[in-house]
Structure formats: structure tokens, C-alpha cells
Amino acid sequence: MKNIIFSVAVLLSFLFFLASTSEAAVPCGTVDVKAAACVGYATGKEPKPSPACCSGLQQLAGTVKTVDDKKNICRCLKNGVKAFAGVQDKFLSQIPAVCNIKVGFPVSLNTNCENPLNSNGIDAEMGGRSAHLGMMWEVVD
Fold first, then answer.
1. Which residue from 37, 39, 70, 96 puts its CA 20 to 30 A from 46's CA?
2. Helix spans in 66-140 (H)
3. Residues 6 or more apart whose Cβ sits within 8 Å of residue 120
4. Neighbouring C-beta atoms of residue 110, cutoff 10 Å
5. Residue 55 contacts by C-beta under 8 Å, 6 or more apart in sequence?
6. 74: which residues sit within 8 A by CB, 6+ positions away?
């Protein structure tokens, strides 16, 4: 069960957050802990993301200050998800909306952490402008 939670957490984080190796980068251990509660939903074992899942991801979203932060978190999640079997795109892609987190790009197991806006050939829109890599994730009230 811990492996499933870790994997889903990593996948969810990867989907929601992209970060790289900067001084202020969030450690992968922190990303895993914050996203762990999302594994049940991402694998289809729970009917909706738990409050702990959404809270953890919203906390992660609050830490994103730079594009490198997004890339780093994405990498952490993507690597963590590899340890868990059963994570499904159809559930993973719904987590941002259900948890009121504006990601600005399609969330998928196939998201390219280096260039998430082009993972599916789509540029995200934010405020009527192209959001490219300068866009920050935010929690939607």
C-alpha cells in the first residue's frame, strides 16, 4: 500500500508541478509526502481525491516560485510513480480541477517535465495570454 501511495503521489506531483534543480527546489521526499494521499484516486481505488490529497497538492502549488521549481517537482513525481502499478491518466488528469489547482497544461503520465506545455501539443491559456513556461501554478479559490 505504501508503494501505491508513493507512486500516485509522485505521479500526481509530476502532473501538477514542474521543477528543476535550483537552490529553492522542493526535495523529492517532500513532494512524495505531499502527494501520497492521491494514490488511491489515481489508481481508481477511491471515488474522488481525498481532502489530504488536495491539501498536499495545494501546499506544493504554493511552493512553486519558478519554472525550475515546476520541473523539479514534475521529475520527482514522475520518478515516484514508476514504483506504483495501476496509475491511470483518466484519474490523474482530473485531480487539478477537483482539487481547485490551476496547472496551466494537460496533466498526464506522458507530460514532458522539461516542456510541459508541449507534452500534448497544446499551449495553455492563462488570462487570455499564452502561458508558456513562465506561468506559475496556483490554487483557484
1. 70
2. 67-81, 89-92, 95-98
3. 106, 108, 110
4. 11
5. none
6. 13, 14, 15, 17, 18, 19, 111, 113, 116
> What is the Cα–Cα distance from 34 to 90, expressed in whole angstroms?
21
Helix (H) or strand (E) holding 138: strand 138-139
Q: Cell 519554472, residue? A: 67
Chain centroid to CA 140:
15
Write out the chain's pLDDT in tens, 141 residues.
666 655 555 455 555 544 333 455 789 999 999 999 999 999 999 999 999 999 999 999 898 888 888 888 888 888 887 777 899 989 989 999 999 998 777 778 888 888 766 554 333 333 333 333 333 455 555
Cell (9 digits) for 117? 506545455
